[in-house]
Design a protein that fits this description.
The protein is built from six helices and 16 strands. With 377 residues, it is of the alpha/beta class. The strands form two sheets. Strands 2, 3, 4, 5, 12, 13, 14, 15 and 16 form a nine-stranded mixed beta sheet that branches. Strands 1-10-11-9-8-7-6 form a seven-stranded mixed beta sheet, covered by helices on one side. GO terms for molecular function: hydrolase activity.
Length: 377
């Protein structure tokens, strides 16, 4: 079986200078052409952590004009049980980062479902934080979230987008990472999953039958094993001394099996869960890995994904507050909102960039672009 450990880490991100492409309101009648085979713009929304506003995020996405939006669900790194410490690491930060979408926040998930753009969603571990067992007698929080999302929740299935020549295959929902299956009873009742092998088979089978001319994107809440075990690796444990690989074994197994036994073109694996900002102020995580076979593994968990723009009283200057729990002051002007943009050209990933969009009333602008990958570099 092919090992995911044979990978080449992409160079450190190239941080470009702040750019201002547009300071006017976008034209809602503008539609991007998707006639070219397997050419598209995809916006990835990483771990939401309750930082989602349908009105403001819709304005930002209207400026970016993606053909498809991918949501990686919601996770809280500090709330995963640590067998090393026998406690919840990063407990001091739990109050401000305690949800994937929002601890089975049905209203927030409904707001995401109301986004008027093509989208695909995978639920994270905190989207099943309260519901441990399936109940046939009443609708639990998980069931209500699934009903909100309908076919757009892609767990263990495939969604085809013929006009884009793309297919999105979903991994295991509710993942908390590591060797143990989180919410085993729930997965067993809803999906018939008993163990990692069974989960890997479900992911593998979901990809079978993909149209031959389609590029495949795997969407999961957490990334696969085999991408490194250092603190700052894309799925590395940053909350324990010495690190460790916190990836999902079933996802790695499914990817390897697909590459060994099929001709399915897996160009991109998108996930979240592992925050860009490391625990205890240890720096930043590597958010992209390029495999030896050119498969790209992308972590979209930019947390927090919203910065509050605050105008200094009596001046024209604007600062940002990197505090997702802060409230707007009388001088507040708006927000900056993070997305990871993926540009696909003729069936190949051409560019990936962490992109920050300012939203000030009806005006939107691209304020920052940090290039993570550029084909040819």
């Amino acid at each position: 079986m092919m090992s995911l450990s044979a990978l080449i880490h992409a160079p450190s991100p190239c941080f470009l200078s702040t750019t201002h492409r547009s300071t006017s309101s976008p034209d809602p009648t503008t539609v991007r052409s998707s006639s070219m085979a397997a050419s598209a713009r995809i916006a990835v929304v990483g771990d939401v952590h309750d930082d989602w506003n349908l009105e403001e995020d819709s304005k930002a996405l209207q400026l970016l004009q993606p053909d498809l939006v991918l949501f990686t669900g919601r996770k809280d790194q500090c709330a995963c049980w640590s067998p090393i410490f026998h406690e919840f690491p990063r407990s001091s930060q739990m109050s401000s980062t305690f949800c994937d979408f929002g601890n089975e926040n049905v209203e927030l998930v409904q707001s995401i479902a109301d986004l008027n753009l093509p989208k695909v969603v995978i639920l994270g571990n905190h989207d099943s934080w309260k519901t441990q067992h399936f109940s046939g007698k009443r609708k639990d929080g998980v069931q209500r979230q699934l009903e909100c999302l309908g076919e757009e929740h892609v767990a263990y299935k495939r969604l085809d987008f013929p006009t884009l020549k793309l297919s999105v295959v979903g991994g295991r929902p509710f993942s908390c990472g590591g060797e143990q299956i989180f919410r085993r009873s729930l997965l067993s009742a809803r999906y018939g999953i008993q163990d990692m092998d069974g989960s890997a088979d479900r992911i593998y089978n979901a990809a079978l039958g993909t149209p031959e001319d389609h590029m495949v994107i795997l969407l999961a809440h957490n990334g696969p094993t085999g991408l490194g075990s250092n603190l700052n690796d894309i799925c590395g444990k940053d909350w324990v001394f010495g690190g460790g690989d916190h990836g999902d074994p079933d996802l790695a197994q499914a990817i390897s099996h697909l590459k060994e036994t099929t001709k399915i073109s897996i160009r991109l694996v998108v996930f979240g869960h592992m925050h860009k900002e490391l625990a205890y102020g240890n720096g930043l995580r590597k958010m992209i890995v390029v495999g030896a076979d050119k498969t790209i593994y992308l972590n979209g968990a930019i947390v927090p994904r919203v910065r509050r723009l605050v105008a200094e009283q009596g001046t024209d200057n604007t600062n940002f507050m990197n505090n997702e729990t802060s409230v707007f002051s009388p001088g507040s002007r708006g927000t900056m909102r993070a997305f990871t943009l993926v540009e696909i050209l003729e069936g190949r990933v051409d560019k990936i960039a962490e992109t920050w969009v300012s939203v000030i009333e009806d005006e939107t602008a691209i304020e920052e672009e940090h290039v993570l990958f550029q084909r040819g570099n």
